[in-house]
Structure formats: structure tokens, C-alpha cells
Amino acid sequence: MLKMTIAELEAFYDEHFPLRDSFRFRIETVGERAMRLRLFYSDLHLRPGGTISGPTLMTLADTAIYSLLLAHLGPVALAVTTNLNINFLRKPAPTDVIAQARLLKLGARLAVGDVTMFSEGDEEPVAHATVTYSIPPVKTA
Amino acid sequence: MLKMTIAELEAFYDEHFPLRDSFRFRIETVGERAMRLRLFYSDLHLRPGGTISGPTLMTLADTAIYSLLLAHLGPVALAVTTNLNINFLRKPAPTDVIAQARLLKLGARLAVGDVTMFSEGDEEPVAHATVTYSIPPVKTA
Amino acid sequence: MLKMTIAELEAFYDEHFPLRDSFRFRIETVGERAMRLRLFYSDLHLRPGGTISGPTLMTLADTAIYSLLLAHLGPVALAVTTNLNINFLRKPAPTDVIAQARLLKLGARLAVGDVTMFSEGDEEPVAHATVTYSIPPVKTA
Amino acid sequence: MLKMTIAELEAFYDEHFPLRDSFRFRIETVGERAMRLRLFYSDLHLRPGGTISGPTLMTLADTAIYSLLLAHLGPVALAVTTNLNINFLRKPAPTDVIAQARLLKLGARLAVGDVTMFSEGDEEPVAHATVTYSIPPVKTA
Predict the structure, then answer these.
(1) How far apart are alpha carbons B52 and B96 in whole angstroms?
(2) pLDDT in tens, A6-34
(3) Closest-CA residue in chain B for A115?
(4) Is residue D139 assigned to a domain?
(5) Is the confidence at residue B73, as pLDDT, over 50?
(6) Which residues of chain B have a Cβ shorter than 8 Å from any chain A Cβ?
């Protein structure tokens, strides 16, 4: 049922988001309605106090659900985020962040997923987000 | 680690929420940081179109996290909801709703959980909510 | 630009939501992209502690945006709530609640509004909600 | 009642967020419970399709409420974001973004505000966010 492999997803990002040096991540696993991403630690993500910034975690959540949609819909669809809700739960450690993403709904017009984020090696989540994407109508020739 | 059993939770609700005839539920399982509730189907929950109303599902989500907090903190705490975010995913069937609740954070001041809701016998969720409770300061004598 | 008057909205609710004795409200003003509703105080809305319950305020927020959509789209549309996010800000007083609703977006597929709720006679809001509705495709003959 | 002027806020950001070259903004007005910020347009904010990215708008919303809190609480407080909910309403134009922020609650433990964002010169909002901050306990000597 998946329309893109991890390698194809990586190639898609390299082509369309070339400036992503400041936000380096790797898709570790992809399956039916679920995916795991790793955000590589970087000083660029820090905010005062030495912790990973909120915008970095929001970007990670959005990226995880977008990647999950790409894997299920293929590279044609230009889905756009319509809603993102995030709860910051704990101060992240200065290390990689693991994002576990899950697709809750994949409808014709809307897709909804949630993402639980962990500091590498820690079982307690640092943040949890739900993300809604609007899926554009399929154009028929 | 749990401070209240299912029987104690039921007794607590019977005493403090006596008008809950219009919202009948049963706690089916409770464990470390997780709980399953069943909302019994009732015509009172319906909205035009024969589906279970949004406010009914919001009440269910709020009740599930409140019950999970009671189980972990005991009946003393008067926690209050500070935020609730819900995504309605599918039209619920006219049957019982099962709520799977999970505690994401149990801090000294804030607790956060999420709830995935299913129509009985269906694997696709009808709604997903995240709920934040503020926990009052412990008074010391 | 409005397609329904207050009287027409009231008649619509009387016809389609006949059981609303337990949730009595009045639309006080309706204008371009804005509306004010009053929820009449009732013992039915109370929760332990004498305050108006969270589900009551969530229902009020949902009703306010639904009414605003009806006023702008007319009674044909069967819009459904897809997301509701509410922040509970203060303990409501045991009195009427005033809801000020505002339409932030009225698109072909999605509508978004927010609602600020006040205890009658108080300037500090008791709750604030944002609500998203999905608007069904217009059927053409 | 305000504890920091615009000049003092600017100096605070220059000192504590020195890397903010990639996110240049100006506080245009600050008043009792309200503030207007301008995010200067930059190619760095773009995503494919030429529109301003979601993470940029989330960062703007978070920054606006943080700045409002600084103005009301002074530079000592180390408030942290606990919840952010954003609705993306329209595709932003490739120009400055104006953020109108409002404080809905300033409690002893939690503060909540909302932010409506506009492309410069446009009356229809491009996004709306609500943000909750946890305020650390005041330490007394």
C-alpha cells in the first residue's frame, strides 16, 4: 500500500527542500500508517538554557506527518497543514530526537496524525503533537 | 502505584456526579498510565443524522483523562481541565464508544494525556483528543 | 451577505434540535463574520464546586460557530466539526455565559472561527475556543 | 503596568537570542495585554511554492506571546511554552507578516494568549494561534 520507499522520500526532500541543512533528519522506519524519524542534534536547534527549541519540535512533528502522507499518497500530492496542536511535556536533552508518527485518518479531503517525540534513549516523551493536512482534490484529465 | 481501584473510582463518581444518568460509562481496565472506558450508547447522545454528538465525545475524552488522574493521584486532588483539543475523524456508529486513554505526562503542576475513541467493534478511530489538567498545589499542614 | 436572520436560526434549531431544553441559548446579535450568543444559566450545567462544566462551554463554542456558519451558508449545508481546541481560563460564575464568535476563514472546504466566552457582567474571559468545520461539497444538479 | 519598553525588549532579544538573524522581527506596538509584531520577509522563510513556511508562522506566534509576557512580567521570568495550537487559514503572500497578539489570561501559574497573523496590507488573516505558557514559581529570599 505504500507508494514511496525511504530512499524515494529522501530523494524527494533533497530535491524540493535543498536548504534543509539546518534541519537534518533521517526516516528510520516506515510502515502501514506509522513512521519513525530521527532529528539529528545540532547547535542550531538550541534555545537559551541549552534545550531544543519549541519551533524545532513543531517542525519535526509537521515533517513527520508530511512524510507519512507522502509515503501513502506519493509525491504528486501537495498537501498543506491546516492545524497543528502541540503539547510540550519535558525539557528535551541535548541529543537526537526520535519522532514516532501515526496516521489516525487518511480521508479524501483531510488527513490527521499524531506524533510522540522522545529524546534518544529516554522513555518519557518530550512532546506530543496532532497535525491535520488538507489534501487537494485529485485532478482528472 | 495506582491509588484507586475501578470500584473506588465508580463509587467516587456515584457520590460526586449523581446526575450522570445522561452519561453512563464504565471503566473497563486501568493500569499504569493507561485506561479503557466504555460509554454506553443512549439516544441522548445523538445529533441530527443519527450520529453521536461532538459534545458527547468531548465529555468522554475529558472524563477518561480525569479518571486516569484520579487513579494516579487519589480522590483528594481537584484537578481542573485547562486545555482540550479534539479531532473528529469519522462519523461514529450508533453503538457504544470505547475510549483508550494514555497519560503522557504527570507533573507536579500539569498532567497531559491523550484519548483515542472507537465505535465498538471498529478498528478505525472516530476521534482523538489531547487533554491538559492543572494540578493544584499540595497543601502542607 | 447573511442568509438567515436570528428568527430563522431560532426556528431551525427548534425544528432540528428539539431536545435542547437542557441547553437553552439565545442568539443576541449576528453580523458579518461575527455573532453573540447567550447561554442561559441552568443547574444542569453545573459540576461539583458550583461552576459551569467544561462540556457545557465546549458545546457553547461549537454551537456558536455552527450558528455563524448557518447564518452565512444557509440551512442547507451540513457542516461537521473536524477540530475543536479550547482553553479554560477562569472558573465561570453561576450565571449566563456570553459567547462572542468570529469567523476567521470561510473557505470552500473548511471554515474556522474562534469564540471568546465571558460570565455575564465580567470583562475577563472564562474560556476561548477555536473550531474548524468541514463544509460538504455543493451538489450540482 | 508594563515592565519593559519596546527598546528593553529589543535589547533582551539581542542579548539572549543572538542567532536570530534568520528570524528578524520588530515589535511595533505594545500596550496593556496587546502587542503588534512585524516579521520581516526573508527568503529563508519560504517553502516550496513560494509561500512562508508553517514553522515560520508557529515561531512568530510563539515569539509574540513570549514578548507579551516579558512586557508584563519583566525579564526575570523564564516562562516555557506548554501548548501551541495553530490554524493555517490562507497562503501567505511573499511579504512581511503582521502578528496581533492578545493576552487572554495572566495567572500565577499559566498565561494564555492568541495571535492573529496577516500578510502586510491584507485584511484576511493567514493564521491564528493560541499559546499557553507555564510561569515558574516566584522564588522568595
Answers:
(1) 10
(2) 999 999 988 887 655 678 899 999 999 99
(3) B114
(4) no
(5) yes
(6) 83, 85, 87, 89-90, 104-105, 112, 114, 116, 124-125, 128, 130, 132
